[in-house]
Fold this protein.
Amino acid sequence: MSLIEGKHYYDNNYLTAVNGIVKIDRVYKVDESMFTECDYDKLGEIYKQLPGFIGDYFGCPYWYGLDYEFYLTISFEPVGLQLTGLLYQNEFEDWERTFHTLLEKADFPYIEECIP
């Protein structure tokens, strides 16, 4: 399966680079209500394999730094996995490419209908 924008994820704001920096607010429509303990374990392992992983802080995984610096963080919300952050565009593209590859292999359940 290949992740498709609109079907598997959407952006709450358009990713526009300013001086090579993007502000990220993306939702991956992963259906947590269908998750098993094994799925949570797989997701935790995926997080650790992503570029820039620094650990869990404030109950959420972080990459590259903490809030108000260059950072990425992700958490489960009612609409899915919400990714937020501020990062150089090339670092985000590398992170995103790796994340998509790992998500595709994990074959998690996705929310069929989701209105952003």
About this structure: The chain has one domain: 9-106.
